[in-house]
Amino acid sequence: xxxxxxxxxxxxxxxxxxxxxxxxxxxxxxxxxxxxxxxxxxxxxxxxxxxxxxxxxxxxxxxxxxxxxxxxxxxxxxxxxxxxxxxxxxxxxxxxxxxxxxxxxxxxxxxxxxxxxxxxxxxxxxxxxxxxxxxxxxxxxxxxxxxxxxxxxxxxxxxxxxxxxxxxxxxxxxxxxxxxxxxxxxxxxxxxxxxxx
Length: 197
Ligand code: GAR
Known about the structure:
Blueprint: E1 2-8, H1 13-24, H2 27-31, E2 33-40, H3 47-53, E3 57-60, H4 69-81, E4 91-94, H5 103-108, E5 113-117, H6 129-135, E6 140-147, E7 157-164, H7 171-196
Parallel strand pairs: 1-2, 1-4, 2-3, 4-5
Antiparallel strand pairs: 5-6, 6-7
Helix pairs in contact: 1-7, 6-7
The site of glycinamide ribonucleotide has 15 residues, from helix 1, strand 5 and helix 7.
């Protein structure tokens, strides 16, 4: 069985979309893959409740308990690697995981570490993407699913979706519109990866 581990920090709506798609599209039967665990760096991340209600193992690894990024990332890798199966390394998905990862961590999971970012990369990497898109007068905004490389919000693009920026949009309104697309493209991009492995 190929195990998928999803890392979250908050609401976990992208994680939930992946879990629901995996159930609906029967990823276990189709690809021999399952969402094995959801790990959060915040104990109060609402997404954890959804995951455990689905019978998925949840883990909390609070970054505040570690002296530096290296120490946190090493503990995180140790937790994740428990889900390796013989000949089937775990697939790691960042879904609103609001931590910058060390190059050592990123390299360890090269080619099997995926992120979703709420902009049409390479535009607007980093934070506050929706407000920045509005302030720049963009007519379209969107989201990007990409393989993670050591450079923040870079790496080969697996999928993108665009939405219009509407007159009078607030960051919240635009974020909600983009999020509906995130919930479609992230599971489909992962299904695409699973088909290839
Ligand atoms: C999503 O919009 C995701 O693209 C973004 O955080 C939100 C998490 O929502 N990720 C980043 O900004 C990463 N830099 P969710 O917890 O409901 O999936």
